[in-house]
Amino acid sequence: MRDNIEAIRLALRLDVEHRNAENALEREILRKYAGFGGLKCILQDANELADAAKWSKSDIELFAPTVELRRLIHDYSKNDKEFSAYMDSLKASVLTAFYTPEPVIDAIADSLKTNGIEVKSLLEPSAGQGAFVDSFLQRYPGAETLAFEKDLLTGKILSALHPSISAEIKGFEKIDPDFEGYFDVAASNIPFGDFAVADPRYATSKEIAYRQSTKAIHNYFFLKSLDSVHEGGIVAFIASQGVMNAASPFVRMEMMRRADLVGAFRLPNNTFSDNAGTDAGSDLIILQKHSNKKALSADEEFFIQSIVDRETKAPNNKYFAAFPQNVICTEAKVGTDQFGKPAIIYKHEGGADGIASDMRKALHESLKMRLNLDFYNNRSLTPPTPEPPTPESVKRSTENKVEKPKRIADTPLMQQYREMKKKHPDAILLFRVGDFYECMGVDAVKASEILEITLTRRRNGKADNIELAGFPHHALDTYLPKLVRAGQRVAICEQLEDPKQKQKEEYKPTEIITPPPTVEPKPAPAPVEPVKEIETDGGPDFNDNPDPRLFAYNLFGELEPLQKPKRQPRQPKTEEDKPRPTTKIQISDEQVKKFRPLSDKELEFYGSLDWETNPPINGFYETMMSIAHRQLAEMEAERQAMEATRKETITEDGTIIEISKGDFVPKPRVAPEAPKPAERDMSPRPFSEDIQFFHHNGSMVVDKGQVGFLSEVRKNGATFSPLTLKPEQEKRAMLYITLSETYQQLYHFEAETHEEDADMREHLNQYYDEFVVRYGNLNEKQNVKFILMDANGRDALALERGENGHFVKADIFDHPVSFAVDEVTSVDTPMEALTASLNKFGEVNLEYMGSLVDMEQDAMIDSLAGHIYYNPLVSNFEIADRFIAGNVVQKAEEVKEWVNREEERIKNFPGFDGVEPFIDLSKESLKALEEAIPRKITFDELDFNFGERWIPTGIYSAYMSHLYGTEVNIAYSSSMDEYSCDARHKNMKIWEEFCVRGYYRVYDGMSLLKHALHNTVPDIKKSIGKDENGHDIKVPDSEAIQLANTKIDEIRNGFSDWLEAQSPEFKDRLVDLYNSKFNCYVRPHYDGSHQKFPDLNMKLLGDRYHINSVYQSQKDCVWMLIQNGGGICDHQVGTGKTLIMCMAAHEMKRLGLVNKPMIIGMKANVAEIAMTYQTAYPNARILYADAKSFTAANRVNFFNQIKNNDYDCIIMSHDQFGKIPQSPEMQQQILQSELDTVEENLEVVKQQGHDISRGMLKGLLKRKENLTAKLTIIQYQMEQSKDSVVDFKQMGIDHIFVDESQCFKNLMFNTRHDRVAGLGNSEGSQRSLNLLYAIRTIQERTGRDLGATFLSGTTISNSLTELYLLFKYLRPKELERQEIRCFDAWAAIFAKKTTDYEFNVTNSIVAKERFRYFIKVPELAAFYNEITDYRTAQDVGVDRPEKNEILHNIPPTSQQEEFIQKLMEFAKSGDATILGRAPLSDTEEKAKMLIATDYARKMALDMRMIDPNYADDPNNKASHCAKMIAQYYHKYDAQKGTQFVFSDLGTYKPGEWNIYSEIKRKLVEDYGIPPHEIRFIQECKTERSRKAVIQAMNDGDVRVLFGSTSMLGTGVNAQRRAVAVHELECPWVRREVV
Fold it and tell me: What pLDDT does 1300 receive?
């Protein structure tokens, strides 16, 4: 601790003085810094001497140094923000920072040096104070070094110690992508844990291994470092034993797929004892990068496999069983690790020096055997870089900074070549390009020497030259054997097409030719000229080269060169005109005559070659150039000869003039030669216009009259690359670009302003009409290809939709589609006028209503009596459902005050003031409000929770001052949801009576008071002995915890007794405060009987669904949803929720309350919802998403159809809805809010010091890291701005109907009640989070709550949190008003937590904390009912059969009894091998009880579901079920009674044993039921087959139907003949069977 403080003091002083460590003493002080790993004292309060009372006995000696450290950092900090940043960084390092002894590091560096590894560039991804850097630079003084350190203070020490290196004080994930493949060696002691890493490039990668690595920091460091070293480079990391011992092999498989295993070494547990004061198992793993290798060695196969000793249950790795010499230890014994799990504990008596000595021997053997030094030195295929200047040796010895590698912009052709070369690094790659096979780079040099072909260089985009050698494809049979005989391995790759035009690069299967084991000696080649390197200017190499830098597809799919060679003059050049070198290949006249005549295109290309400006690149081109020049010369000579002998006649004024040889020849009239067009600049250049919101990489644009594409698009500019087009092609492109940009500007303007732009819409129509007239529809085949070349092409194609086999314009051509524009001009009744007024103005507008209905205003007001009331507070009428709703107590008081004030004002006024009619109206309104006020809740009816946030802290202070007999002050911070307590004069009640003395510390009355206010219990530990290192073995002190819980309950329960003893005046004030806060809500009575539903087709509903009328409950619910703008439809099964949803969506659209409603339902019944909607409203325009709509090819077009058209409703499944991209801005806003809450909880937890568990701290840190990573990814995606796919916000959806809303109950929430059972998963699911994003987007647009309708018969199914989460979805603003910002604040008001004893799965009695009761139920119900319409089947009047539930208690079989004992033992020990499975991973360990119960459910059903080797038993559940099915079958045979069988375990799979098929077999073989009468719902792969089976059930042709809860439990109307439902296993949550 002292060394750390002195190092930090020196580092901070050096930072202030702006200098580095300049002498040996300063460097020695800094090197002694060892971090704070395991020093939990850093987490505790140490601001003043009084805080020492909170410290445990074992840590009290560190109190004074901790105070000194905090003051030191505070004094050097510029402000409080910097001080907090330093302290947070230190606190976070407590869990991760453990430093490696110097001898161990030296052993690694020495071994690499001894075995021939020369390090020119070193990467240290987790540097600490630079121990690895020190060691390596001593041995490699000139090595460039890049080191990362995330901790701020440690980073300062690193920078001061090593000024010559590049030190980055940030996380390794921030490394620049340009460093990929740059370093020789990466060496470090990496952090370990399941913390997420914020690397957007990995998190959004297509490779699953990259995405998964961001969830665990140690996996990420391995993969990221392998990316950062070159091919053959070394990664040497010390990591936790968890990497090699983990039950899951996938990370190790990925490591072995991308690298060769050089060696793995198990280090003893006492390796870090001296430096970090901790005994933890660790391994040294050394890898050599080898991308895409083909096979694994035996060593690597061992490395992948983890094993568990059957006797000791200790995990290990098979590699160490095969190579025990790589276990560095002098003693090994079975014990437990730091988590209390069985483990082999390794010790080394020699300490760090002895460990290092043994490591050197083991390292030498492994490196000598497995290190491929040639592979390391060759670096395989690396990007070509400019020749670096030769470094001065003096500078390299003192300066080790890493310069950022120059980014190399490969051409697409080279990118393809490099991708294939990575797959075959040890082979010569023959890459088919057009008519040639080409070799590049090192391969080209080898091939030119072996095959004696010309070696050239060519330009590679913005990169430097790269070597090139090639031969015609027809010569493959000649050259390939030569390469194989020379001992070369050859890979042949056929390129399919231009890489720029393909979204995904594809290759034909690569053929690998490997030389035979014995290679004949190659005969000495005849003397040949030295290989001549020919420099070229990067011009086209051959006629059909598809390199997109040289050639590109034009807009009509034709391959054209970007810089098309000009046709050469017809007469050949003479030596005097163009001197050139002597050609190597001379073509005789006879050879030319034998060669076929070249085509015009060949003549044009090969004729353009010359030695001066465009030389041939190899012998073949030289030959073709000579032939072309000869043939061109012959053609020119022939032309001149014909011209000389030809006679030409010219008619002039009717006279024929004949040209002849003589003295006088009349000159023919010749038209003057037209001037040549100016040369156009075809080179890439900066885009001259402003960047618009629709500009992306790949956008087609016009710049200075030229058509081209944008690249490198940024906010302030882009690069424009012109296209070479024919005039007609250019016209088409320009017209398309104008059309596309006009559409983008029109939609964006109208979506942002909600104003129609008629002029721009007229222009859009004109451009579209002109395009269609000249070139056809946008979606015609000849146009689609070139439109899709544009980044916005899919948007443009969605401007048309198909109807009846024809393309028609999208709705945006006619009217705005991003907001509603329909204007109501007349209605029939005052009620309809009222609805229209609410839609247009959001209030009662009598003038507007009078214009819609032919009625006088007074008569209209009279007819609306009871529906509207005058509100003097806003000087206008309000609808009853709004006026007599909400906080009616406060509203009545304010109205009464207004009436009294106005009456007093006009009391002595002689004349008519004009306010009298409004006073009369206000009195009527006041009377209605007073009648609606809820009955006042009395003090005796209230339950009080100690710690409720609405109770003033002064009351808590008074109570605690009374209880403790001394003055106690309590304060509350709403932003952090945190109570603080203070007592200036503590007494014996605080020190003794309300005090718990733990083994390590004392919890006095003030500490327990804080826990009582937050309703938590301290985590008290005790020691049960010492381990072999003399450290305490800490376990929870259950007796002390129970005692603390008893005293906390005494504090909490005594609060109610104290309140009871207070004066009546005090009680009345408290009751008034409560009633005004919570008991003030009135749920309006929604009467929808006046609704006519003008578009509803009852005849079709009657014919198809036997629906002859609409229930009153359905009308009322629709009216509630219309008035509130959404809500909850909590109707039981069979009461018509589907029709409610359809009617509400259509009525909202018809009345203009919404513009684009969306319905989402379960996959099983979403098609039925769409059919019901179409039946109810046959003329409605519905967009239904079938299975094909969301395929990869159609998804983007479907999103654009939603965006550009004005549908009455959009219907899709829950799963499809989850694939809609959500607004990045909204995701960022919500996740940031969650992160803020986590950080507040983290701060509170840290302030509690030892009162909290290490697990709680780690859990909050992990959640913070995960949220930070998600935010970083979203920020990265927003900055990229290259994905132009339409997101939810752009679609214009303004209301969502969520059918079966219970599927979205797993929404994330934050809580400090980490030990309370039954709260569910606070992380939530991505599905629920996506719905929250969408609803918040709608709420932000409308500025109010709701915006969605939830429909379900089980809105709350399992946990208490589900009710809170409903409010979080739908009523965020109202929760804010009640000062409820998190779950804990909500639970403090409405729930009560208790600790009771329960039986667990092992039949043991354990104490469990749970929220067992709701309190203040009437007020909570009023809050819920305000937006909810709840109806039972009895309320609605639906005739439903009585449920006759029969529970079958089946005794277990002997095999089941035996397995039950194993399950109980597994539940106690966590040893999965008892069940015959692999050991549990860390993730599975957390779900141990879930695994146990899952096994129990399978066992109860049939033992063969656990192991197919078990035999059938006539007494198991499956046999019993078959017997019951048969009994019902025969009992109701005359009526053809049908039965449903539900099972979510072992569902039907063809060709495999499963419980469905087994029961069917028993029914057929044992009970004689025909097999065709037994069906499985999983057999129905299409909607048609599903409907056929349902119809067969209703007809009685199918008598037994099996299915899972999800597939058969919803949307299946097959119950017409149902007589029984069999549940093979009870589902976890309540479901509906419709």
Answer: 86
User: 466 forms bridges with which residues in the sheet?
Assistant: 458
* Amino acid identity at 711: S
Residue 337 CA neighbour count, 13 Å, CB half: 17
Alpha-carbon Rg for the chain, nearest whole angstrom, is: 41
Helices (H), 933-1089: 953-964, 988, 1005-1014, 1038-1060, 1064-1077
What does the alpha-carbon distance between residue 44 and residue 1564 come to, in Å, rounded to a whole number? 70
Measured in residues, the chain has a length of 1634
CA 1386 to chain centroid: 29
C-alpha torsion 30→34→37→42, nearest 10: -50
Please report, for the chain, how many H helices and E strands are present, in that order: 61, 52
Residue whose pair of structure tokens reads 């194993």 in the numeric block: 1462
Please tell me the distance from the alpha carbon of residue 751 to that of residue 590, in angstroms, as a whole number: 75
- DSSP assignment letter at 1090: T
pLDDT computed for residue 942 by the predictor: 79
Residue 1136 CB-half CA count within 13 A: 28
What tokens does 487 get? 């001992």
Q: How far apart are CA 1131 and CA 1440, in angstroms?
A: 14
What are 612's two structure tokens?
Answer: 């001066």
Residue 1426 DSSP SS3? coil
DSSP assignment of 299-350: HHHHHH-EEE-TTT--EEEHHHHH-GGGB--SEEEEEE-TTS-EEEEEE-TT
Which residues are registered as beta bridge partners of 234? 185, 288
Least confident of 266-270, 1324-1328, 1585-1589: 1324-1328
What is the bridge-based pairing of β-strands 1209-1213 and 1127-1131? unpaired
Q: What angle do CA 1575, 1578, 1580 make, to 5 degrees?
A: 80
What are the tens digits of pLDDT across the range 481-539? 888 878 788 888 875 444 434 444 444 445 566 555 544 444 444 443 333 333 333 33
User: Which of 276-290, 370-384, 879-893, 1369-1383 has the weakest average pLDDT?
Assistant: 370-384
Q: Cα–Cα distance between 715 and 40 in angstroms, integer?
A: 47
Instruction: Kindly state the DSSP code that residue 682 receives in the 8-state scheme.
Output: -
Local confidence band at 1524 (pLDDT 50, 70, 90 cut-offs) = very high
Q: Which tokens in the block code for residue 478? A: 């000649």
Task: Please name which of 302, 175, 277 lies closest in space to residue 226, comparing C-alpha atoms.
Answer: 175
User: Distances in Å between the alpha carbon of 602 and those of 458, 473, 583, 591, 621?
Assistant: 22, 17, 20, 18, 11
End-to-end CA distance of the chain: 68
Residues 236 and 255 sit within 8 Å (Cβ to Cβ): no
Q: How many angstroms separate the Cα of 675 from the Cα of each of 419, 670, 728?
A: 48, 15, 21
315-335 per-position pLDDT tens digit: 889 898 888 889 999 888 888
* Alpha carbons 174 and 166: distance in angstroms, whole number: 14
d(CA 974, CA 1384): 12
pLDDT at 1558 over 80: yes
Indicate the pTM of the whole model: 0.52
Instruction: Please state, in angstroms and rounded to a whole number, the distance separating the CA atoms of residues 1152 and 1150.
Output: 5
Q: How many CB atoms lie within 10 A of CB 1246?
A: 18
Write the pLDDT tens digit of every residue in 811-867: 889 888 776 655 667 778 888 888 777 656 656 888 888 888 888 888 888 888 888
**Per-residue pLDDT band at 1616 (split at 50, 70, 90):** confident
Torsion of the alpha carbons at 1150, 1151, 1155 and 1157, rounded to the nearest 10: -70
Q: For residue 1256, how many C-alpha atoms fall within 13 Å in the half-sphere facing its CB?
A: 24
Name, in order, each residue with C-beta under 8 angstroms of 661's C-beta and a sequence gap of 6 or more.
none
Q: What is the pLDDT of residue 1365?
A: 83
At 1273, is the secondary structure helix, strand, or coil? Answer: helix
Helix (H, G, I), strand (E, B) or coil at 1352: coil
Residue located via tokens 């088919």: 432
What residue ranges in 1419-1522 does DSSP mark as E strands?
A: 1428-1431
